[in-house]
Amino acid sequence: MKAPEDIPYKFFNSFSMDGRAVIEYKYANDCSEEIQQLINNNFTEATFSESLRRIEKREQNYYGPTDGWLYEALEKYPISGKDVCIMGSTHPWYEAMIISHGSKSCTVIEYSPRQSFHKDVVYLQPEDVGDRKFDACFSISSYEHDGLGRYGDPLNPDGDLGAMKNTKDLIHADSLMYLAVPIGIDKVVFNLHRVYGKHRIGKLLENWEIVEQFGFFEDSFENNVNGVNGSPYQPLYVLRNT
Question: What pTM was estimated for this model as a whole?
């Protein structure tokens, strides 16, 4: 499988929100067999154990400050004893985060197949979830990729909005979601990710109650700021499924 390199003409206006979002191009073929094999190499008991050790020290991983804001959120809105799901994973860092904070279980919903390495961590592909319901959900730097084809998903200008809407059916009413996506001026960097600005963020959060925000600044939607590892700035929302 090869990820798409260009936005088809018929989708361009939809991806750009009729010109309200900047379009840039930067390519990744992360659905290839070679890349998936490299990603799968992360899912080992040793990697998980090392992640647990670092989390105990409140260290930060790839997304840097986002993890710091997540530690704060989990202190204020704990997940102890809850069945928790994660939307997408390329490294078991957030699986370790959830287990270390006392969850009852951790279920990861991921397009690509993954092998479990822990009795309380389960990996499912979307078609295998069925009618299961969870007490809380994590999506850390995940939904901004939906519909861009980078990970083998079908091209869909509103793939992110559909995925967010579907999450409402995965968790119980009044349950919480911990969400981080790139924030700044509206942009699509094809096929890597979206950046959510004033035009797109309201669509993504439609019908969710914002309980609290961590890491936001007065001008968060007016600048496109890179965080660590060249990753965009990703503050954290705690949302309630209304």
Answer: 0.95
